[in-house]
């Protein structure tokens, strides 16, 4: 199978926070891979911007080291990396200062796509937007890419939307959620809306329930200070899990166009019922022999911030009334795995003997570590000895289907950056979506604070607190095993 690479138009891309962790690990190596694939054109320029004193050459050395470390190792020997580095420049800029902006303006070319990636702390988003405007860098054709977190509640998200709107039109703002850039997430839309097979069954009449799990093995790492003011609900549920929920639950848009898709996602969020607090479990990971527990990690012995959350929610519309959606995410769990699981109902009547077993179809969409989709179907166990039923997976794992080409599938960041250059907002969150998501999340968090709730401890390397298992067991269901 040969995938087509369509080069994007020439562009100027400025990465504010060009010396930061995200730029080093994801943005710069991603751009390099797009360069290697032929998608980034020869006329493109990339300018890093941050406070550190560097010139073009020393930044190129920084970029080279980032790519050698995080670029996957390929193409580095044959001169391609040297070619790529010719497109790189650097400007020393303080987002809150005045120096460097004229230099940056002088490097921008007229008549081509101009994109500004805000890979800095959210507190700087407004300062940068304002200066881009004041120094004449914000042209009608320019775009800004805004990293998460987008606010920490409805009020702050609204304020941020308002600030950005003073200088940029909504069509110029790309709020990035890298989960949406994953191949499988887009494949989810292809599976749902490109096949006759699934859509007629995609409703409460045939679907028993849906599970979305985003499990991490890492703890809070070096982000303890930030994380303790955020927690799993704000850091993961309000954005990544909500976006996945939207894509799995939305109505078919009339066309695969940015606002058509985002309108349907917004309707899902607005149809979410408030969550009963009996249907939410929060947890904090404990220490192991070698690693500290959550509270030690964030250096806050009385912290009530959750590193795990599981909840059951409902969508009040014709399609989903009565179908529960179970969401869970946490740190220091047994494996790194992100998966959406659609569990179909039992057949209305079994024609087989009781001991043949009863089985349900399960569609599992795995986002990481490997991307792929499997459909569990029930067949007869081969061989003599009567009619016994077993479940076998129909496996649509991309690595198998695409062979060596699977390695060429762009990672989420590189795909999304190319979408920015192409001007395609389909996989980016609109301002009203983000606000609607906070409007649903805020009361949950406020409820925890009001009731003085303390998260339940759970063992590192486990599946979270036992109460999360009970959340399902009470309903006669169980979580799909977190597998790597
Ligand atoms: P980081 O490692 O702390 O880097 C911050 C960057 O901002 C550095 O390049 C820093 O360089 C620059 N900076 C700080 N203050 C500045 C100022 N006043 N003016 C200009 N530049 C300034 O942060 P990060 O992890 O890369 O994260 C960047 C953004 O992406 C944050 O919003 C974060 O929430 C988001 N994000 C990160 C990840 C990730 O995996 N890292 C994932 C999702 C979202 P100087 O100190 O040289 O100025």
From TrEMBL:
GO terms for cellular component: cytosol. Catalyzes the oxidation of glucose 6-phosphate to 6-phosphogluconolactone. It catalyses: D-glucose 6-phosphate + NADP(+) = 6-phospho-D-glucono-1,5-lactone + NADPH + H(+). Its EC number is 1.1.1.49. Substrate binds at residues 178, 182, 216, 235, 331. NCBIfam families: zwf. Keywords: Carbohydrate metabolism, Glucose metabolism, NADP, Oxidoreductase. The gene is zwf. GO terms for molecular function: glucose-6-phosphate dehydrogenase activity; NADP binding. Residues 14-187 form the Glucose-6-phosphate dehydrogenase NAD-binding domain. Belongs to the glucose-6-phosphate dehydrogenase family. The keyword Mitochondrion does not apply. Residues 189-480 form the Glucose-6-phosphate dehydrogenase C-terminal domain. It comes from Pseudoprimorskyibacter insulae. NADP(+) binds at residues 17-24, 51, 148. PANTHER family: GLUCOSE-6-PHOSPHATE 1-DEHYDROGENASE (PTHR23429:SF0), GLUCOSE-6-PHOSPHATE 1-DEHYDROGENASE G6PD (PTHR23429). This is Glucose-6-phosphate 1-dehydrogenase. The keyword NADP applies. GO terms for biological process: glucose metabolic process; pentose-phosphate shunt, oxidative branch. It comes from the Bacteria.
């Amino acid at each position: 199978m040969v995938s087509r690479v369509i080069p994007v138009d020439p562009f100027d891309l400025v990465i504010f926070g060009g010396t930061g962790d995200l730029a080093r690990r994801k943005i710069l190596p991603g751009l390099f891979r797009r360069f290697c694939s032929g998608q980034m054109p020869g006329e493109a320029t990339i300018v890093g911007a941050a406070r550190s004193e560097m010139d073009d050459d020393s930044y190129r050395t920084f970029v080279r080291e980032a790519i050698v470390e995080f670029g996957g190792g390929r193409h580095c020997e044959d001169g391609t990396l040297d070619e790529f580095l010719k497109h790189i420049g650097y400007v020393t800029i303080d987002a809150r200062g005045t120096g460097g902006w004229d230099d940056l303006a002088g490097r921008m070319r007229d008549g081509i796509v101009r994109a500004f990636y805000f890979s800095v702390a959210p507190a700087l988003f407004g300062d940068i937007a304002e200066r881009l405007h004041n120094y004449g860098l914000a042209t009608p054709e320019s775009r800004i890419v805004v990293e998460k977190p987008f606010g920490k509640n409805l009020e702050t998200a609204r304020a941020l939307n308002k600030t950005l709107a003073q200088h940029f039109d909504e069509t110029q703002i790309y709020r990035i959620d890298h989960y949406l850039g994953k191949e499988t997430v887009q494949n989810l839309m292809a599976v749902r809306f490109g096949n006759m097979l699934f859509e007629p069954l995609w409703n409460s009449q045939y679907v028993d329930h849906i599970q979305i799990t985003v499990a991490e093995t890492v703890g809070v790492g070096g982000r303890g200070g930030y994380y303790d003011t955020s927690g799993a609900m704000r850091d993961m549920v309000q954005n990544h899990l909500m976006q996945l929920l939207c894509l799995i639950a939305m109505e078919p848009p009339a066309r695969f166009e940015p606002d058509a898709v985002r309108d349907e996602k917004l309707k899902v969020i607005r149809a979410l019922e408030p969550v009963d607090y009996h249907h939410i479990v929060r947890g904090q990971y404990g220490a192991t022999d070698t690693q500290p527990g959550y509270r030690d990690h964030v250096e806050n012995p009385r912290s009530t911030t959750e590193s795990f959350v599981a909840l059951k929610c409902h969508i009040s519309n014709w399609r989903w009334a009565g179908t529960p959606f179970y969401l869970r995410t946490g740190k220091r769990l047994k494996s790194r795995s992100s998966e959406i699981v659609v569990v179909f109902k039992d057949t209305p009547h079994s024609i087989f003997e009781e001991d043949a077993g009863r089985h349900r179809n399960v569609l599992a969409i795995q986002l990481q570590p490997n991307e792929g989709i499997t459909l569990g179907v029930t067949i007869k166990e081969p061989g003599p000895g009567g009619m016994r039923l077993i479940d076998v997976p129909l496996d649509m794992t991309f690595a198998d289907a695409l062979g060596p080409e699977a390695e060429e599938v762009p990672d989420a960041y590189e795909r999304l950056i190319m979408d920015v250059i192409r001007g395609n907002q389909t996989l980016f969150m609109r301002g009203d979506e983000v606000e609607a998501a906070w409007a649903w999340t805020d009361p949950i968090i406020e409820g925890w604070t009001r009731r003085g709730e303390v998260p339940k401890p759970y063992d590192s390397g486990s599946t979270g607190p036992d109460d999360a298992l009970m959340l399902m067991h009470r309903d006669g269901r169980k979580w799909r095993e977190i597998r790597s």
